[in-house]
């Protein structure tokens, strides 16, 4: 068998081992990401359901920070739906930007808190990737908050986060989640372009 054939067989075997729960979570997450690009408030409903399922999956894969992150996603989904529903959603879904100093402080704080969390995970848990698990978790908290507040730079944060999560998920055998993270990179590019257009030429949200 050729090297390419072995790779294809390995991928096929990995995909065959994907659980129905992981497939359902990924499907809901994909729907949610497309709704985010369109600034539809229903993205928070589908995203919340996807995260509820992912809590169990990440905990089983020994990524405790990612599991905890999914709990946060469920909570922020309720807030996001409420915030995007106020005033028929038009005023609350205007795309804006943080000033550079806020982004710099947010990044520095995220790295600092991640380093502290990683030390605790390394000594007290069986976490597989303490620092990367922590960094993507705290970074995702920030990016999700920016998403709820309709900040343009949220998509830039997601590019960095999803690149790392693709590696983490694949390394721990969550291949469909890894593929989802790669798909998210494309969604983030589309989302950034779409939101940038709205930022420059504000239009009422549908």
Helices, strands, pairings?
Elements: H1 3-16, H2 20-37, H3 43-60, H4 64-85, H5 100-124, H6 130-148, H7 154-171, H8 175-200
Helix pairs in contact: 2-3, 2-8, 3-4, 4-6, 5-6, 6-7, 7-8
What do you see in this structure?
There is one protein chain. The protein is an all-alpha fold and 206 residues long. The chain has one domain. The chain contains eight helices and no strands. The longest helix has 26 residues. The chain is globular. The model has no long low-confidence stretch (mean pLDDT 83).
Give the N-to-C terminal Cα separation.
54 Å
Mean pLDDT: 83
List unreliable stretches of 5+ residues.
Answer: none
So what's the overall shape? Answer: globular
Could you describe the largest sheet, including whether it forms a barrel?
Answer: none
Quaternary structure of the protein: single chain
Q: Strand share of the residues? A: under 5%
Structural class: mainly alpha
What portion of residues is helical?
over 70%
Radius of gyration: 18 Å
Domain count: 1
List the secondary-structure elements in sequence, H or E: HHHHHHHH
